[in-house]
Amino acid sequence: MTRPAPGWADHPAALALAGRHRPRAWEPIPWILALAFYFVFPKHLGFGTEVLVTILFAISLDLVLGYAGIVTLGQAAFFGAGAYTVGMLAKHGIWNEPITGLILAALVAAAVGFGSGLVLLRTQGLTLLMLTLCTMALLEEAANLAHDYTGGFDGLDSLPIAPLFGRFEFNPLYPKTQYLYVLAVLFLCFVFVRTLVYSPFGQSLTGIRENMLRMHAVGAPVRRRLVLCYTLSAAIAGAAGGIWAQANAYVNLGTLGLDRAATVLIILVLGGYGRLYGAFIGAIAYMALSHFLSKVYPTAWQLGLGFLLVVIALFARNGILGIAEAAMRRFQSVRAPS
Amino acid sequence: MIFGVDVASMLLGGVAAGMVLFIVSVGLSVTMGLMGFVNLAHGGFAMLGGYAIALAMRHWGIGFVVTAAVSAVLERLLYARLYGASELDQVLFTIGLVFMTIASVTLVIGPENQPLALPRILQGQLNLGFTHYRTYSVVLIVIGIVIVGGLWLAFERTRMGAQIRAAVDNRRMAESLGINIARLFTLTFAFGSGMAALGGGLGAEFLGLDPQYALKYLVYFLIVVAVGGLGRVTGVFDAALLIGVLDFVLKKYMPQGGTAFIYGLTILLLLWRPQGLFGAKSA
User: Fold this and answer.
1) N or C: which end of chain A has fewer CB within 10 A?
2) Average pLDDT over all residues of chain A
3) Among candidates A229, A223, A236, A219, which has minimal Cα distance to A196?
4) Model pLDDT, residue B1
5) What confidence tens digit (pLDDT) does each residue in A143-154 have?
6) From CA A92, how far away is CA A69, in angstroms rounded?
7) pLDDT above 90 coverage of chain A, percent
């Protein structure tokens, strides 16, 4: 066995590889900002909660789309599964404790993800796209039909969610508890996903995205990894849906619709997929824009959004973060020679 | 006997719906099969055709020509840049186009449902011998059959059709044989979008016409294409008839679960034959 040359560990490439997973200096900033938002804008916490939930949902999509390269149009199926789990358990008086309810929501969504992933992930390309779409449409129809349990088209409202830790009430008008609760869940999920994508498992997902054939050839259990990734992502999406239902105290068919699935896709791509923080940038940019613009000019907003998508697809495939990274590189390469 | 007549009239309704589905979806099938392009904006083209018809009533040809011209320009300017791009980029791009179409139509024409007055000749009932049926649906079926026949002839018997089939089966090989793929793409794309517009116009009477049309029926068009197989005219025809009749019958007998049944059936079909019910095995 040949040993690596002495000093190999000090090589810049080796250092970069070994240190990839370490937190960057700027990484606490988003979390500090999110906490600051709580104190600075106490009147906009409802909006802030909505943004945080969207970030969580977008992160779940980033895991399958950005890292494993599974193009899905049906991610809202899991969001809805989680939301309806919380909603139905609470409405029918079976279970309304928030934290365990959220875990249940994630488990149910994971079960849906595992079941559908097991069969759907045999296919690729257009067929896979269609199957994810149909699965979601099927769930939506099921929720519509099971009127007695799900409230059908009207959904379930005024969900009696128990106070957090038995003390902190969920008040829809002053969503202080919701905001901090969602922020905490988002942080935990983010740490989990961040660890996951830098782990060998995450690396093999990237490998599958880049070249599935080669990953088969080197003996990686491609399908098993894809299904596992799909299941984990479904669990996170389910948690996002569950927490959305808890924070808003209601759930409706919109949680399962194509609209929601398309929106989260747009958000992720706007921010930049496959880079974790793209979900943050995209959700903030999209939600802020839609929050202010869609009320004043709803139609112009849709037109602008469509235009934005076309431009992104044609010219800026890596989203806002991709543009920022390119600008950074250019800046550094200008400075480096001097 | 009453039962038989009932079944016949129901089948007729389903077949008429299937014809419209076919006319709209066949373009989508060919463009997706030929260019491997996931075109979610196809429903938007169908909607444009419907609007053109509604606005210029009785000038049936207008929708086709306008949409074909618009889509040819779009194809050259924008779509062509995304051939060979990832599915994700194509999906995003075409969703963006759909949004822009919906918003523009809402801005220019308004968000309300467009009433569509049928010409006098198409109103009323037609005596078919065994039953009376709506003239409009019968005309739809006749037009559908003519179009299927024409397309089949064009596909199987002309040089252009042979080129398209060759390109669907093996693009590289077709290209090395000197077929001008880029031009073929533009022509097919324009023609397919024109067909969508024609179908949108023909079906506007019973599908309704409002700006959300572009998204509302997209899933149906996609299901027809996925079940029929990419780039297969006859496959799409069979699939469109199947879905049209099923949808019609299910809406009558199971108004609640009909749609869910079709989604479920599609999932099972695609799992059983990912290349579509009538697609080539190796595709």
Assistant:
1) N
2) 83
3) A229
4) 46
5) 888 777 877 777
6) 39
7) 19
> What is the distance between the alpha carbons of residues B214 and B43, in angstroms, rounded to a whole number?
4
Q: Out of A119, A262, A269, whose CB is closest to B271?
A: A119
Chain B (106-165) residues lying within 8 Å, Cβ to Cβ, of chain A? 106-107
Contact B82 A313 (CB under 8 A): yes
B280 touches chain A (CB under 8 A): no
Q: Which long-range contacts (CB under 8 A, 24 or more apart) does A113-118 make?
A: A113/A78, A113/A230, A113/A231, A113/A233, A113/A234, A113/A235, A113/A237, A113/A238, A114/A227, A114/A230, A114/A231, A114/A234, A116/A77, A116/A230, A117/A226, A117/A227, A117/A230, A117/A231, A117/A234, A118/A227
- B88 touching chain A per CB within 8 A: yes
For the segment A122-143, the average pLDDT, to the nearest whole number, is 82
**CB contacts, 8 Å: A135 with chain B:** 267
Q: What are phi and psi of B27, to 5 degrees?
A: -65, -40
Residues of B in contact with A310 (CB under 8 A): 78, 93, 96-97, 100
In the predicted model, residues of chain B with pLDDT beneath 70 are 1-6, 34-35, 53-85, 113-133, 231, 255-258, 278-283
Domains along the sequence of chain A with CATH: 29-34+42-335 (1.10.3470)
Question: What pLDDT does B73 receive?
Answer: 67
Which helix (H) or strand (E) element contains residue A131? helix A125-145
Cα dist. B140→B5, B111, B126, B133, B229 in Å?
Answer: 20, 27, 13, 12, 24
Instruction: Count chain A–chain B contacts defined by CB atoms under 8 A.
Output: 123
Residue B152, pLDDT score: 83
Q: Which residues are A156's β-sheet partners?
A: A251
A309 to B103: CB separation less than 8 angstroms, yes or no: no
Phi and psi of B219, rounded to 5°?
-60, -40
Residues of A with Cβ-Cβ distance to B107 under 8 angstroms: 299-300, 303
pLDDT at A111: 94
Contact A138 B270 (CB under 8 A): no
User: Given pLDDT bands bounded at 50, 70 and 90, which one contains residue A161?
Assistant: confident
> Which residues 234-263 on chain B approach chain A with CB closer than 8 angstroms?
256-257, 259-260, 263
pLDDT, one tens digit per residue, over B147-159 is 888 888 888 888 8
Q: How many CB atoms lie within 10 A of CB A322?
A: 19
Average pLDDT over residues A41-66: 88
Cβ–Cβ below 8 Å for B90 and A313: yes
| B72/chain A closest Cα distance in angstroms | 17
Q: Token digits for B115?
A: 């009433």
Question: Does B223 contact chain A (CB < 8 Å)?
Answer: yes
Asked whether the beta carbons of B53 and B201 are under 8 A apart, the reply is yes
For residue B169 the two structure tokens come to 């089966």
CB A246 within 8 A of CB A170: yes
The gap from C-alpha B64 to its chain's centroid, in whole angstroms, comes to: 13
Q: Using DSSP, state whether B282 is helix, strand or coil.
A: coil
Q: What is the pLDDT of residues A277-324, one digit of tens each?
A: 888 888 888 888 887 777 777 777 778 788 888 888 777 777 777 778
